[in-house]
Structure formats: structure tokens, C-alpha cells
């Protein structure tokens, strides 16, 4: 019974984690370029149980998990979000593979969010102030002239060619780590490649790839699962109480 309570409590922990992930996805439904998190639950190894009776071969009676708390694996879904027209010339979206490159105080970071701004010194920056990288470094926009970005990422202001957006890809984007501000960081040893299969769409933003209806349904499911597991804890506790208080009196 004690193990039953521990097992049920581990289930409550898992359902809390699921709700936190789903709540974060829903909270970022309107965040440009946001990639939703998904999770999987893996149990530990199993131990075989046998009944031993003198003079008889051991009889197999079932299996018991070796660990009470299963392991939760987190991954990011990098599927394409829908493109939404904004008409803002500094809003850019990548249709296809790849990431924009920005420079932070800790080095390069990568994002699918193209809601860029022009800084006071003319640099193309993220809302957090990080410079967007071209093939030659920071992209600096002249103060006058219409900003035009073609499908390959070439940037022109008026008659002046400013540079070309640096668009990169990763052989396994699942290795990227979220670092906040809608940015991803590549772990040590993971080197980006030049992206090939993409089109830059000016005046568009890639929306979050969170499907609100699906996320809400899964949130409700997680809540119901939590409630059922909570009842299991209460049932185990009541049974333990009877075993401790009532059974001794029968003797």
C-alpha cells in the first residue's frame, strides 16, 4: 500500500509537468516563430516476481517496476507555423528550413521569429535588441530609403545593397536548446550549416505552431488524469488507515 501511494504520487508529479508544458505552449500561441514543446513518458525496467513454495518450482506471478518515478523526455516540435501577412517591411518569415542568426552577449543564437526592428544606430535587431546577422556581420540599414528583402534574403535599402541575411540549418534541430526570448542555442560541437531549401517572405510573420484546440483538449485530459490519480492516492490512504487502525482490533 505504501508503494501504491508513492506510485500514485509520482503520477501526480507527471500530470503537473504535462500541465506546465501545455500551459506554456498555450501562453505562447501569439508569439511569432514559437515552437511548441512535446513530451514523452518512459518507465524504468521491470523486475519479475515469483512465488516460492517448498518442493515446487518457482511460479511467475507478474512484474513490478524498478522505479517509482518514470522519466519524462522533453523535445521541441520544429514544424512550420502558418505565415501571416503584416505588411511591415521589417517583418520577415522563413518558409522552409532554417533559422535567422542573431548575436547575443553569449555568442550566436538562432530564431524563427522575424519580428525585427531598426535600432537607434540603424541596426536590424530583435525585440530584445540583439543584432540580426548577415553574411558579413550585423546588418546596418541606412536611415533613408525603402527596405526590400528578396526571397534569398538579400537586403536592399533604396539603391544600396546592405547585405544578405544569414540563414542556417541544423542536421538535427532537436539538439538545439531553448534559452528564452524565443531564441535557441546550439550546444558545444554542434555547428550550423548554410540553409538551402528556404524562401524569405517580407511583410510576413511565422506564427506559433501551437494548435489551440488540440492544446486545450490535452490540457483538459491532463486535468482529468490528475483528478483520477488524486482519487487513487485517497483510496490508498483510506485502505492504509483501515489496515493500521481496524485490522489490529479484529485480533
UniProtKB/TrEMBL annotation:
Residues 5-35 form the Flagellar basal body rod protein N-terminal domain. Pfam families: Flg_bb_rod, Flg_bbr_C, LlgE_F_G_D1. NCBIfam families: FlgEFG_subfam, flgF. Belongs to the flagella basal body rod proteins family. It comes from Candidatus Caldatribacterium saccharofermentans. InterPro entries: Flag_bb_rod_N, Flagellar_basal_body_rod_CS, Flagellar_FlgE/F/G, Flg_bb/hook_C_dom, FlgE/F/G-like, FlgF, LlgE_F_G-like_D1. GO terms for cellular component: bacterial-type flagellum basal body, rod. Residues 93-156 form the Flagellar hook protein FlgE/F/G-like D1 domain. Its main location: other. Residues 201-245 form the Flagellar basal-body/hook protein C-terminal domain. GO terms for biological process: bacterial-type flagellum-dependent swarming motility. Keywords: Bacterial flagellum, Cell projection, Cilium, Flagellum. The keyword Plastid does not apply. It is found in: Bacterial flagellum basal body. This is Flagellar basal-body rod protein FlgF. It comes from the Bacteria.
Amino acid at each position: 500500500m505504501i508503494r501504491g501511494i508513492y506510485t500514485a504520487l509520482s503520477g501526480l508529479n507527471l500530470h503537473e509537468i504535462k500541465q506546465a508544458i501545455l500551459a506554456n505552449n498555450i501562453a505562447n500561441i501569439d508569439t511569432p516563430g514559437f515552437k511548441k514543446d512535446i513530451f514523452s513518458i518512459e518507465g524504468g525496467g521491470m523486475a519479475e516476481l515469483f512465488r516460492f513454495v517448498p518442493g515446487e518450482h518457482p511460479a511467475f506471478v507478474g512484474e513490478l517496476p524498478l522505479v517509482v518515478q518514470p522519466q519524462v523526455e522533453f523535445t521541441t516540435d520544429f514544424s512550420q507555423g502558418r505565415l501571416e501577412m503584416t505588411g511591415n517591411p521589417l517583418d520577415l518569415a522563413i518558409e522552409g528550413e532554417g533559422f535567422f542568426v542573431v548575436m547575443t552577449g553569449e555568442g550566436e543564437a538562432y530564431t524563427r521569429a522575424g519580428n525585427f526592428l531598426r535600432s537607434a544606430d540603424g541596426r536590424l535587431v530583435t525585440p530584445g535588441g540583439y543584432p540580426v546577422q548577415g553574411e558579413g556581420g550585423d546588418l546596418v540599414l541606412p536611415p533613408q530609403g525603402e527596405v526590400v528583402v528578396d526571397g534569398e534574403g538579400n537586403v536592399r535599402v533604396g539603391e544600396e545593397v546592405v547585405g544578405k541575411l544569414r540563414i542556417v540549418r541544423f542536421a538535427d534541430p532537436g539538439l538545439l536548446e531553448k534559452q528564452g526570448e524565443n531564441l535557441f542555442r546550439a550546444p558545444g560541437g554542434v555547428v550550423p550549416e548554410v540553409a538551402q531549401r528556404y524562401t524569405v517572405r517580407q511583410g510576413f510573420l511565422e506564427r506559433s505552431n501551437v494548435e489551440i484546440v488540440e492544446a486545450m483538449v490535452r490540457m483538459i485530459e491532463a486535468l482529468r488524469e490528475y483528478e483520477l490519480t488524486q482519487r487513487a492516492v485517497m483510496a490508498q490512504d483510506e485502505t492504509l488507515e483501515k489496515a493500521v487502525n481496524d485490522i489490529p482490533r479484529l485480533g
